[in-house]
Design a protein that fits this description.
heterodimer; A: 157 residues; mainly alpha; 6 helices; B: 513 residues; two-stranded antiparallel ribbon
Amino acid sequence: MTLNKDHIGGLIFLTISVVYGYYAYDIRMFPGDQFAPFNAQTLPIALAWVGGLVSLVMVATAGRSEEPNPNLAQLNFLLVGKLMLLVWLFAQALSWIGFLASTILFLIVGYWILGERNPRTLFLASVPFAVGFWLLLAKVLDIYLAPGKFWQMVLGA
Amino acid sequence: MWDGIFTGLTTAVAPFNIMMVVVGCFCGTFIGMLPGLGPISAVALMIPITYGLDPSSGIILMAGVYYGAVFGGSTSSILINAPGCSSTVVTAFDGYPMAQQGQAGKALALAAYCSFTGGTIGAIILLVAAPALATVSLSFQSSDYFALMVLGLSAVAAFSGKGQVLKALLMTIFGLMIATIGTDVIYGIPRFTFGNLDLIDGISFLLLAMATFALAEVVMTVLKGEHKEDDVPMDMSSLGSMKLSKEEVKHVAPTAGRSSLFGFLVGVLPGAGATIAAFLAYGVERNLAPRAIKDKFGKGALRGLAAPEAANNAASTGSFVPLLTLGIPGSGTTAIMLGALIAYGIQPGPRLFVDNPEVFWSVIISMYFGNIVLLILNLPLIPYISRLLIIPRPILIPLILFFSITGVYLVSFNSFDIELMVLITVVAIFLRLLSFPMAPMLLGFILGGMMETNLSRALIISDGSLAFLWERPLTALIMSIAIIALLLPILGRYIGLKRFSADSLVVADKGEG
């Protein structure tokens, strides 16, 4: 038997339901709540059971699925991985080098990852945009954007 | 009712709110034109901006964006055969052949007029139907609400198309599961937080919407390598005349009227939405057409373009009926609007009509204004707005990514939210590859809290007995419809209704309106 998309999907949701159900029974309650008609565990436990049941039905009926499996070889996971890493690094950079510098770096690296190599385009599509957006937030809308720990350490501000 | 309409009119005609409609329609048209980004992403991208506005202006802006995005989707369908969202897929069937025949201008104008007709008829019916339904629903009890939410969620699964019912159901349950993360609203007990303080308030709906739609859609484009593809350059001079002759207007007028009524009714059904309305209206019109015209369908038939355009706009309006009167979103986009209303501290539902008449009526009236704006402002500007699409994808994609993540960051100022977005986006991409639809998850997530509150009230009143599901006739009726809605696709396979849930009705993703 070959596993198709529905088998995999059903099995993933079955796992999610089992793990969710395990932690649902672990939710702490106030004394006496276990005798109440409804408590903090009621809905999560019901969801875990219904989720498990529907997942099992899906796994059982997955053989009838006519949907083709995705051709993974044609998908560019490496590029997506780089972009997701960039977003994660942007989150880290925000607290260290501040919003403006993080935005400029994010955009330049983002354009570069997607194939843009012209230095003029890289500069013009990032620096003026980031400065304009920062001015809009910080000066026009008066939103406080922390300068970043690095600049505070260097400039002692 | 007239007092309410007057209040709504006063709010909607305030210069700032008119500006919001114009800005919303303009931004929506631009975002909707970008292939892959639909109304859900467009509305989600606007949410951070609306937090700084008062509720009426915020919702008016989002309604404008919604209309604009549907219209923008039609434009890219007609000009480059790349529907911006699933509800405008049918528009490309006859719109793109018209553009290839040098009638792009006429196709765009017809799409705009029919959208206007659909939106106008929809808004007029909404004006009458919404308060009537709101008055009736004032007598609803918690058990009825719980049943209505079950109906809303099961209808989403039922309308999700061939082979998608179980997947949509699982995604709905997944959304409900995510909604339970954080502090329990009834007992104040932390659930599934694993000691992480960042999860104590749960996951914000904005974060989930941005990660599963705006961010995931852009990342899917990169994953499939579509970011390297250049769209066909649009030549403004080849758009042709935007004028329609009297005969052509007479030819399509009945179609636009019929499809508008039909679209509105389909749109009112929770979970059905604009895509199904557009496909069904196209099918109905094709069957009604005389033989000679029927053969032209798919090759540039005016009726083939008019039907889906009128129907999808009327359905977009219709989907506001369950949102405004019952607090149950009829589509993914209205689910996001529901989340935004809740964030404002406004509880949509029958009480909205009584407690916040200015929000209720100004939304309805601004919808009409939105249609006018699309017709008189956006249509003449289309050739110029289209030029913005010339921005290369390697530049556009990081910008969309940036707006999506900063949109979430600027609300919470917590970089943990961006990290969580990355995680959710990765999960969403894998689920999309396995053909799991995202809209039911968002609907489940948004309805989760309300569902739990109503279930707890109903269970406490009935002393823990599930008899509340059938003791009250109204609850029993709604639950019966929910069960039928769920069983319909299964029964359909056996009683020859297979055609109804055709492949084309897969509402899976692509920003189902």
